[in-house]
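Side project, low priority. Logging it here so it doesn't get lost.
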Amino acid sequence: MPIMNSLCWLCQQPLAIVQHGICSVCLNLLPSLPVCCPRCGLPASSQTRQCVECQIIPPEWQQLIAISDYCSPLKYFISRLKFYGEDKYVPLLSRLLLLSWLNARRIRQLSRPDLLISVPLHHTRHWRRGFNQTDLIARRLSRWVNCRYLPDIISRHRPTPSQRNLSANQRQCNLMDAFSCNGDVRGQHIALLDDIVTTGSTVAEISRLLLLHGAASIQVWCLCRTLKS
């Protein structure tokens, strides 16, 4: 059970709802995304129409939802969870992503997904880390959104080096044939959850695999969408 602090993690004022982690004032002051393309999630002229790049070469998924750019304070919360196992940040990050999805659903008329899938870790990395941060968040979101969560339907059967220091082309080559689909996704509208989308190589590879197995559509849900190179 995460240890909760009764003070806001950002302004250190008392919290009305301890589980939220940050107060309503700090919530409203979090960095917001600029107007972004609803498909690739990058800055564009409209948040309801695909950008020119997506019209020419669309990504494998149909919609992308993110809380913010990869910047503070979310960058700090994610790194403390991901690399230091501080799972007290799971409720906060899950709630912020839910709010972002609800807002995108209102603006874009998004449908509720049938199935939620989190990006898996290879079993050796999962063993070393002790958990998968996207799995912890997905379990909460599946209850709140009221859709099925199948944590094992996608597996990473080939260990891959970290994507952090690779170029876009290297990231794509690094992930080729790294994943397997272990269930029936035919006709399913799927939400694919990752923590950070940078070049989109990971979610593109999994989206491609899901569509190949008959998925009807893919929404990518991420905590952060990197907007700067």
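Brief comment: The mean pLDDT is 90.
Revisit when time allows.
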